[in-house]
Amino acid sequence: MDKIIQGGKYIKEQIENYIPFDEQEEKDKEQFLEFINSFDDVLTRENIFGHFSSSAFVVNKERTKMLVVYHIINDGWIYPGGHVDGENDLLSVAVREVNEETGLRAKVLNNSIFGIQSLPVKGHVKKGNYISAHIHFDVIYLMEADDTIPLIYKEDESKDVKWVSFEESTDETMCDFIRPIHKKLIKKLKTNNI
């Protein structure tokens, strides 16, 4: 458990140093820090109120498309990512999740956090057990991948994976709560000319 507590402190430093891009991130940063200050264990699913997740905003080389996964629990398209399950190297988790969920080996464009947000997870049944509604304190990293490589997906977590244009990434086929996040990530990418 000491490793988990130390991992939370390491992540706290990263969040404290993160400069929010917009009002959503300012408010979510406050929530992240309050969550870290309130609980010793913020990295595992043992914390029923919430836990950290790590995700990736994966774009193609031309910066015209992003990678999305059709997530079963959310019943919609969202960028790849997953639980950190006790790890404090959130970047490694994001890289691994992209590979597991899509089959791609994405290139990390920046080791720094690219975005943050608090994401709602509705109550659901997983592997025969009920999981109560909770919050994912999601940290996103920016990556690039080849959009011509065939994709695969994890059938136990998703129904499909695909590349979508930036315009499609904010349409009604995406999860309701994720459309403004996709829009923010694209705006940040264009603002910073990455």
What does this structure look like?
The chain is α+β, with helices and mostly antiparallel strands and 194 residues long. It has a single domain, classed as Nucleoside Triphosphate Pyrophosphohydrolase. It is 30% helix and 29% strand. It contains four helices and ten strands. The chain has helices spanning 2-17, 23-38, 90-102, 179-191; strands at 50-59, 65-71, 76-78, 81-83, 107-108, 115-121, 124-126, 129-131, 134-144, 158-165. The strands form three sheets. Strands 1, 4, 5, 6 and 9 form a five-stranded mixed beta sheet that branches. The chain has a three-stranded antiparallel beta sheet with strand order 3-2-10, with no helix packed on it. α1 (2-17) runs antiparallel to α2. The longest helix is centred in the first third of the chain and has 16 residues, at 2-17. The radius of gyration is 16 Å and the shape is globular. The termini are far apart.
Enumerate how many helices there are, as a single number.
4
Count of β-strands: 10
What is the makeup of the main sheet? 5 strands, mixed
Give the domain tally: 1
Indicate the overall shape: globular
Average residue-wise pLDDT:
92
Order of helices and strands: HHEEEEHEEEEEEH
**CATH-defined superfamily:** Nucleoside Triphosphate Pyrophosphohydrolase
Instruction: Indicate the structural class.
Output: alpha+beta
Assess the beta-strand content as a share of residues.
25-35%
Which blocks of ≥5 consecutive residues have pLDDT under 50? none
Rounded to the nearest angstrom, the radius of gyration is: 16 Å
| CATH A-level architecture | Alpha-Beta Complex
CATH class: Alpha Beta
